[in-house]
Amino acid sequence: MAEIPLPFPVDPVATFGAFRARWPCAVWLDGGAGGEYSIMAADPAETLVARTGRTWRTTAAGTECLSCGDPLAALNARLTDRAASRSTQQPDWPAPFAGGAVGYFSYELGRRLQGQTIAPEADTLTEMAVGLYDWALVLDHERGKAWLAGEVPSEVAEWLATGPETSPDGWETTGPVMDEPGLEAYALAFDQVAHYLREGDCYQVNLTRR
């Protein structure tokens, strides 16, 4: 376990653009205005992706089906195995994150775990996508410090210490942008939600579009 100080301040937007351009599966947990920390990580040692009831594990060696059961149990098992093999040395500075799991969990995953029906058009969607990261860049906004924390590869430390090019890369869609369910259908659904709220049938609804 290592913690390597870096020059501060750091432009988080430009730095994350450089992360995305250089390494796969870059993530940014933005502390936002007034937040104490922002955390970035990239190039996970492995990824876990769950869809249609199976959890797939991808490493440098390839992809395998890890589980046909609970994806959260599969994730917990991998975290336990990794924790047993990593250094237990505690750093002097209490880093909020020095490697671990970062990803997302969909509403469909919750429905599957609860045994609820999943709409046919949603059954093939990715229900969980998590990277297991060995290191992270931690921006301490309150103390004015930047650190590399975790099991940091030498090439990462050298790249960041030498002031890499941090021009954010652009992005573009790979196909037409579809609006579902459409403005008219969404407006009707919104009116129905407002009716439920007025009648006291519910107190909160997440009405989303995709």
TrEMBL record:
Keyword Transferase set for record: yes
A GO MF term: 4-amino-4-deoxychorismate synthase activity
Keyword Transcription: no
Domain of life: Bacteria
Keywords: Aminotransferase, Transferase
InterPro entries the UniProt entry points to: ADC_synthase, Anth_synth_I-like, Anth_synth_I_N
Anthranilate synthase component I N-terminal domain mapped to chain residues: 10-147
EC number: 2.6.1.85
GO BP annotations listed: L-tryptophan biosynthetic process
Record's protein name: Aminodeoxychorismate synthase component I
Gene of this entry: pabB
